[in-house]
């Protein structure tokens, strides 16, 4: 099972992760992945200046925009479907 970790530290949150968290929930629901992917939050990845940051398992994605997030999820979660 994959784990998506959304940085909810104040920097990432205000740079876009507040919206990104909603995009992730919607994407998982629309693709029937809610039971197959873990979503958690964390407080800071120590990479604030490159945020907003999202981790999928061990891979850290920086500067994640809500516009590009669905493509990223599609690519990273394709084996979970
Ligand atoms: S707040 Fe996200 S890396 Fe620091």
Task: For this entry, give a set of tags.
binds FE2/S2 (inorganic) cluster; 2 helices; alpha+beta; 4 strands; Glutaredoxin; 81 residues; four-stranded mixed sheet
Structural overview:
With 81 residues, the chain is α+β, with helices and mostly antiparallel strands. It has one domain: Glutaredoxin, CATH 3.40.30.10. 40% of the residues lie in helices and 22% in strands. It has helices at residues 10-30, 66-76, and strands at residues 2-7, 37-42, 54-56, 59-61. The protein has a 4-stranded mixed sheet with strand order 2-1-3-4, with helices on one face. Helix 1 (10-30) links the parallel strand 1 (2-7) and strand 2. The longest helix has 21 residues, at 10-30. FE2/S2 (inorganic) cluster binds at residues 7, 9, 11-12, 44-48, 51, 53.
């Amino acid at each position: 099972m994959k784990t998506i970790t959304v940085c909810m530290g104040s920097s990432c949150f205000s740079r876009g992760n507040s919206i990104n968290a909603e995009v992730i929930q919607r994407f998982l629901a629309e693709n029937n992945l809610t039971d197959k992917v873990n979503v958690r939050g964390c407080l800071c990845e120590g990479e604030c200046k490159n945020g907003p940051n999202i981790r999928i398992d061990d891979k850290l994605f920086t500067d994640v925009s809500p516009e590009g997030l669905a493509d990223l999820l599609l690519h990273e979660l394709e084996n979970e479907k």
